[in-house]
Amino acid sequence: MHVETDFLTALVKDDDWLRESAVRSLEERDDIHTSILAYAEVLVLFYDRENAEYEVDPPRAISNLLELVPIVPNEHEDAVLAAAAFLDEYDMTPFDALHAGVVTTGEGRVLSSEQDYDAIGLDRTPLESD
After folding, report:
1. pLDDT tens digit string along 55-69?
2. Which residues lie closer than 8 Å to 61 by C-beta, 6 or more apart?
3. Average pLDDT, whole number, for the chain?
4. Is the overall model pTM greater than 0.85, yes or no?
5. Average pLDDT over residues 28-56
6. Which pairs from 24-30 meet CB under 8 Å and 24+ separation?
7. Could you tell me how far CA 94 lies from the centroid of its own chain?
8. What is the number of other CB atoms lying within 10 angstroms of the CB of residue 79?
9. Roughly what angle, to the nearest 10 degrees, separates helices 36-47 and 94-104?
């Protein structure tokens, strides 16, 4: 059964009104999964510096969530784990971190003007002209 972001946030927040239902669903079903899109939304919530209710350690929280709610296809899990680390260590935006995660777990090169990729050691071909 595919779940979306409200399911994941219910598991992250101790006082979420949907927490009991999400936990019960995990106990009752063994086919719970989601996509990279739901985790992208969670990374955005973690990045929101104004929203204190999501002040968590992104790599740890994502790792714990992936144990409960895997991503289909499975290869996207490594990209999300890498993105959580980039978000935390390099203060990248969630979507740049996800792009970097996909690149590091895939083909290894990116065509972009985003110089944050240089800081994490990606092989970036500059999009901007010389």
Report:
1. 677 888 899 999 999
2. 12, 46, 84
3. 90
4. yes
5. 83
6. 25/1, 26/68, 26/69, 29/1
7. 7
8. 22
9. 130
Cis check for the bond before 73: say yes or no (omega within 30 of 0): yes
Decide: helix, strand or coil at residue 125. strand
Q: What is the DSSP letter of 33?
A: B
Q: Which residues contact 87 (CB under 8 A, 6 or more apart)?
A: 43, 46, 47, 58, 93, 94, 97
Token duo for residue 33: 């999964």
Residue 55: what pLDDT?
62
Instruction: Pull the structure tokens for residue 128.
Output: 């901007």
| pLDDT at 53 > cutoff 80 | no
User: Model confidence at 50, in pLDDT bands (50, 70, 90)?
Assistant: low
